[in-house]
Every structure is written in structure tokens, then in C-alpha cells.
Amino acid sequence: MRILTALTALWATTLALPSTNPPPSISLNSRQGGALGSKPTSFEWQSTGPLVSAKNDGRGIAGIKDPSIVLINGTYHVFASTAQSSGYNLVYFSFKDFAQAGNAKFHYLDQAPLGTGYRAAPQVFYFTPHKTWYLIYQNGNAAYSTNKNISDPLGWTAPQVFYPAGRPKIIDDNIGAGYWVDMWVICDDKDCHLFSSDDNGQLYRSQTTLANFPNGMSQPVIALQDKKNDLFEASCVYTWGDGFADGTKYLLLVEAIDPDGNRWFRSWTSASISGPWKGLANTMENPFARWNNVKFPDDKVWTWSISHGELVRTDTDEKLRIDPCSMDFLYQGIGPDADWSDYNALPWKLGLITLRNSVCG
Predict the structure, then answer these.
(1) Domains contained in the chain, CATH given
(2) How far is CA 85 from the centre of its chain?
(3) Which of 138, 281, 282, 360 has its CA 20 to 30 A from that of 103?
(4) What is the DSSP string of 309-324?
């Protein structure tokens, strides 16, 4: 997302999580007993209508954006950006059924030690070595806060940054008129990797050891490069189940902008988080997720943009493992008549797309 210039009733009780550990994760690919055969080459999705929008609660929020989502013991936990003309911050809400997601109470994280001021584009995961939840976001730098209990919105600590010396030189050298945005962390058995974008065609990657995380992040390198609008922002990287027979283990998604200004997602795969990345469904004719491979309720397209979002995770730890057999993607969309004259005040809403053509049949 762009930096600011300058279905059941509402879940009303605290989730009974241990104070230091999340519930056991689901073993996603136990039914396969190992790596899958051939990975998919195309995707077809079914979308809901808009599920979550800004509330008329005195906050003056215009849009809800950039969701990060995990599912724990039947409850979905969502972190998102709140957008309005005056700036961005973060919100947390939870629910048990997507049909009731719009009724979930918003907990604005500027009430936590995480604080007021510019915070946007969150990513949440449980870092097993520390037995702690991490919330990654942008605040002009690549920032993070921590919390022992994901369901305690007041528990998020004050921001810390991955680059205490400020924006790395390689980003200054390449960013042009873009913005440094959309930080994303994923770990393997040895290292943790930090991805970010510059809205100018570069995807960056840094790393530190698993033992040293969150400290010691290296200077970024360019992980992928393309034309500005073809490799724009909102990257996310996942461990793709147990991998595929060709050695593919990781899935990379990056948001692009088509010639009409609509947002969509391209995809790549790799055997390593450090790459190289090979194109999967990454054209407008064969996208990962775009209006032309998404079916809407009653064929009524409520948004032409499948924009910044995240795959629903049931494995909540730092490896970000997802099930290639069953994928749901919570995304931001916007109506075709939106007034784009004030980018920060655009009325983004959240919807969900569900995979219809599973590689597992």
C-alpha cells in the first residue's frame, strides 16, 4: 500500500490461548504423505461480496486495507490498515464465520503501546523460538511489535525497526519516485528473510539467522525486478505445503497494476526463499488472481481490483506454511466508481476468494 506523503455472532470473549504458545498447528499435507506431484499452472477463484468495511464509529476511517489473517481453533484473527486522509494506523478484529465478519468489533491498535502515527500494511505470525507473536508493518522503516497473546489488542509493544540506521542505500538508489512499502517476513530452518517493495519495479530481500532474529538484518539485495506496474507492491511469500515433485517449495505473490489501473496478483515459485524465482501464473491472461479468473456472486463484479491481501493461514508460525490443496485469499477491493483524487481516503473493503480448481482434485 502507498505510504502517506509527509459466519456467527461477534466473538466477545478472550480466546483461551496459553500465554506463550498458540494451539497446535494443523499438519496441512498429512493426507498427501509428502510432496505433491505437479504444481498448478493456473488458478480459478470464487469471490464473496464485500465482507468488511470501515465503521461509522466516530473514527472517520475511509477504508480497511492490507489484511493479514490466521485461523486458530475456529477463530479468524485479522490485522489490517485503517486509511483516511490524515493518515494510516492498524486495527485488529476477530470472528468465527466470514458471514459475520462485518459485525466484528474493531480494536484500534493506536490504543496499545504500538502507538499513534504512521503504521500500515501489517503481517502477523507466531515466532516459535521466542514463543511470541510478531506484527510486521511499515512506519517509514521496516518495523515490528510483539505480543504474547494475539487476542489482546492492547498487548502490542512500541515499534522497533529492522534498520536502525534508516532506509538502506540500495533502496535509495532504485526507488525513484516510489515508496518503500509492504514488509514481509518468512523463515526457514536456518534464516529469516525480510521482503519489501519500492513501487518502482524492485522486490528486495534481506536476511538474518533464525537465532539472531529480529536483529542483524542484512543489507537488502534485489530479489526480483520488472517494470514498475508489473512488480508493484504487496509481496507475500509462503512455504507451499510439503512442496512439489520438481523441487518447488515456496510461492511468491506480488501485486501488479494493469493498463486500466486495476490491481491483480502475479505468482512465482522457487526451491529456496533466496530464489531464483520462476514465473508461475504471472500474466494478465493467466494470473494468480485477477478479475478475469475470479467468479463473483451472481456474476455481479463488485470490484475490478484484487488488491493487497493474504492467504488464510492455519499454520501460524514463522515458516508461513499453506495448503496448496485448499487456498483462501482475503483481499482488498474497491468499487468501480471510487474517487481516486485522495488516495488515502479511498473506500477499500475486504472480500474473500476461494480456490475452485484445486491441484489435489
Answers:
(1) 45-355 (2.115.10.20)
(2) 23
(3) 138
(4) EEE-BSS-BTT-EE-T
